[in-house]
User: Which sequence fits this backbone?
């Protein structure tokens, strides 16, 4: 590839410079929060209660009497979604001034892997608060990676896999793509920098969407940034590109197709660096359960830096990548953020500057979207500091717990057991999910099943499952249930295309592929549960699979 081919387009360079300049105010706002987060938090609180005192929720909780953090905490309880659901239902029916004085523009479904129908209202103010985090992240990213200027970007455009939805009151449900989290000026510039347009989200057929996405990406030799949520989302896209490469290259310009083939010949295999010589960064989830899916992604991007995303939930943003330290910095300029100390959960939540390094916390958000002291069911650990702000690492969901008979299996415990099993057996799963199963036809007790995808022998997979079972049995409650016969010991079922099936099943429940959060534990039972045996279809027990022929993706 000649140096001339790698020069940035003057048009893209101009757009990139203008876009970066538009992010400077958000960076300045964040710098104030980094120096004095308490002052910024209190200023946000005063604005929040002033703007929303004359709403149904504000009147019910006496916003007009809030003078400081102490009176705020006495007036407004810490809540979860269940407590706000009746208020959100009023919003969905079209009633104005329920949670916010500002009009609600739309509602979005939460994108977690355990909830099915939770809606979150969005106002222009909430979108501006999201931009208060994405702005400093991207300003810092381009300042530290100037080679990204003049390149195009790919931002998680995934098929919606659901029809256009509206609430009873006529409000739209759902975003089409990730650029909605930016301000209007930034989005206008960003849309001209996109390698894949947002309208591809309207393609409901997943295979057609993947082909069209891959084709458009292959057309761009100037791709510099890839931003997705789940690493498996990008891995599956690259696997599709690899499998359909010849068909795809027929659809791109002959000169570009020849350049791709030559680069792949030099590389000896399909890697992103050969397809996109200017690729500078892949941004993706990398903490908690997502960490185990990074090796599969690294197969396609062996040299490109991977930047872990912070914790950005449907409800609000908690942290974002910034600087070179470990973890992600608290988004103190975006919302009023409090932190429940999980070692003292009954104590008053802390403000940002009060969090200690090494502590584990659950975030509490108050936002301009109408969530007030809303506790996210996430666990974050403080791993360092950025000025007066904590740097956070996502650990796991707070209450992803499987508990039918008192066994109390936590997702963090399963995650630790999977890591231990890897070390003990040398098996590196591409996919691993633990889920409860009902009693078998033979009358055995219910049990937990490990759905495992790995290039390993049946015996090795069985040893892996045994190591995981042994770790779970170190928990008194699980071991006691097995000893009593309430639970049979865990078994293992080998699967193929595990991540793809996981994403597909959640897509059938109205989730966008790019939003699905992979997890190592699905605790659901009853009507809300996914029948994973049915979903994986051809999955079989290890004894039924020849050891020399493990399933492949």
Assistant:
């Amino acid at each position: 590839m000649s140096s001339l081919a790698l020069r940035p387009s003057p048009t893209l360079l101009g757009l990139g410079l203008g876009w970066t300049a538009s992010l400077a105010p958000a960076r300045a706002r964040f710098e104030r929060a980094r120096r004095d987060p308490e002052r910024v938090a209190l200023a946000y609180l005063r604005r929040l209660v002033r703007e929303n005192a004359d709403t149904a929720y504000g009147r019910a909780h006496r916003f007009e009497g809030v003078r400081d953090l102490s009176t705020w905490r006495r007036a407004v309880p810490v809540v979860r979604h269940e407590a706000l659901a009746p208020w959100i239902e009023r919003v969905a029916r079209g009633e104005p001034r329920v949670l916010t004085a500002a009009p609600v523009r739309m509602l979005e479904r939460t994108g977690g892997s355990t909830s099915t129908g939770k809606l979150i209202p969005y106002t222009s103010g909430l979108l501006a608060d999201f931009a208060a985090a994405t702005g400093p992240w991207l300003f810092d990213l381009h300042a530290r990676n100037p080679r990204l200027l003049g390149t195009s970007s790919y931002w998680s455009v995934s098929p919606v896999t659901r029809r256009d939805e509206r609430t009873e009151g006529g409000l739209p449900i759902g975003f089409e793509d990730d650029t909605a989290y930016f301000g209007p000026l930034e989005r206008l510039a960003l849309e001209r920098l996109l390698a894949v347009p947002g309208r591809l989200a309207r393609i409901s057929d997943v295979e057609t969407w993947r082909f069209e996405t891959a084709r458009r990406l292959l057309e761009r030799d100037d791709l510099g940034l890839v931003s997705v949520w789940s690493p498996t989302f990008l891995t599956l896209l690259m696997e599709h590109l690899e499998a359909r490469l010849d068909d795809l290259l027929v659809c791109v310009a002959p000169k570009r197709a020849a350049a791709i083939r030559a680069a792949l010949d030099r590389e000896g295999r399909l890697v992103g660096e050969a397809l996109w010589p200017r690729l500078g960064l892949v941004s993706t989830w990398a903490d908690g359960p997502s960490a185990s899916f990074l090796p599969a992604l690294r197969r396609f991007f062996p040299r490109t830096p991977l930047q872990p995303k912070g914790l950005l939930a449907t409800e609000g943003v908690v942290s974002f990548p910034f600087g070179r330290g470990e973890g992600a910095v608290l988004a103190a300029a975006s919302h009023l953020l409090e932190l429940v100390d999980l070692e003292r959960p009954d104590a008053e939540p802390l403000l940002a500057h009060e969090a200690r390094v090494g502590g584990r916390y659950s975030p509490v958000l108050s936002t301009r979207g109408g969530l007030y002291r809303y506790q996210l069911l996430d666990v974050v650990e403080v791993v360092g500091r950025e000025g007066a702000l904590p740097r956070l690492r996502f650990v796991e969901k707070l209450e992803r717990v499987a508990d039918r008979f008192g066994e109390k299996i936590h997702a963090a415990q399963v995650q630790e057991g999977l890591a231990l099993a890897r070390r003990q057996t040398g098996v590196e799963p591409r996919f691993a999910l633990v889920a409860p199963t009902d009693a078998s036809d033979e009358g055995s007790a219910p049990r937990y099943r490990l759905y495992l995808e790995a290039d390993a022998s049946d015996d090795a997979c069985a040893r892996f499952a045994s190591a995981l079972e042994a770790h779970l049995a170190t928990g008194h409650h699980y071991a006691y249930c097995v000893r009593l016969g309430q639970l049979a010991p865990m078994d293992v079922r080998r699967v193929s295309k595990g991540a793809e099936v996981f994403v597909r099943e959640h897509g059938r429940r109205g989730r966008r592929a790019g939003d699905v959060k992979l997890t190592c534990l699905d605790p659901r039972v009853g009507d809300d549960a996914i029948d994973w045996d049915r979903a994986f279809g051809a999955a079989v027990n290890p004894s039924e699979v020849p050891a020399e022929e493990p399933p492949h993706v």
Summary: The radius of gyration is 24 Å.
